[in-house]
């Protein structure tokens, strides 16, 4: 497993399991448990996914099955817009902790910036309060564009360690990536496989055939070779294992360029500048 270092010198696994759109039942529990048994050490959750309870059970069962400790894992969750405002952040955080059955999170993110910059700034101050109190190891943001980050920078004491955003070969986000690199903020991709849409791309399949890897492994490796942290989602045991099996090869500069050239500035999720829940 590769790790990325944050601007506060803490580290995070570069590959984890996402659980968006996974039912709050044994499906979520078993996927998380199997991921941990298979070697995953990062799980990405969120309050609004509605499955933190069973994700939490999967974490506990995974810890026992893998013979590891809670400290070996890196668990993320996210603050939803309903809990915006400095005085509400702690409540949202405690709700996720209770749901997950955990004493702390390794990373807590503002899930979306919303459309009210003053409220966003006030909410970030609540995130800073959590961090300064030692209740969470790292704080960051999700779905923030450059303008959001510049606004935050002008009104905050603590810089986000990470920005989790939509990123895949059809939406390569070059300006945002360059900005994050300059600012020392890690970039993390959600839905890197585009809900499987990218797996039918001919260029991706040609490269997969060239190197005897699956299309999913090629796209995940493209994320890793770009220095991006990524959290592909799957509930299928074989695919969970396959998605992790990407550390025994690299893509050539030519292959990387071919995949990057697929960019269409095509989103599959909302535009952060307009989304307000």
Describe the secondary structure blueprint for this structure.
Layout: E1 3-5, E2 11-13, E3 17-18, H1 26-38, E4 42-44, H2 52-66, E5 74-79, H3 89-100, E6 107-110, H4 117-132, E7 139-142, H5 146-154, E8 162-166, H6 174-183, E9 186-190, H7 202-211, H8 215-225, E10 229-230, H9 237-244, H10 253-260
Helix pairs in contact: 1-2, 1-9, 2-3, 7-8
Notable characteristics:
alpha/beta, single chain, Aldo/keto reductase family protein, oxidoreductase, eight-stranded parallel β-sheet, 10 strands, Aldo/ket_reductase_CS
How does this model look, in words?
- The active site is at 49 (proton donor).
- Residues 15-263 form the NADP-dependent oxidoreductase domain.
- Belongs to the aldo/keto reductase family.
- The record marks 78 as: Lowers pKa of active site Tyr.
- This protein has 277 residues and is an alpha/beta fold.
- The protein has a single domain (11-196, 224-233), classed as TIM Barrel (Alpha-Beta Barrel).
- It has ten helices and ten strands.
- An eight-stranded parallel beta sheet has the order 3-4-5-6-7-8-9-10. It has a two-stranded antiparallel ribbon with strand order 1-2.
- β7 (139-142), α5 (146-154) and β8 form a beta-alpha-beta unit.
- α7 packs across α8 (215-225).
- The protein starts with a strand and ends in a 17-residue tail after the last helix.
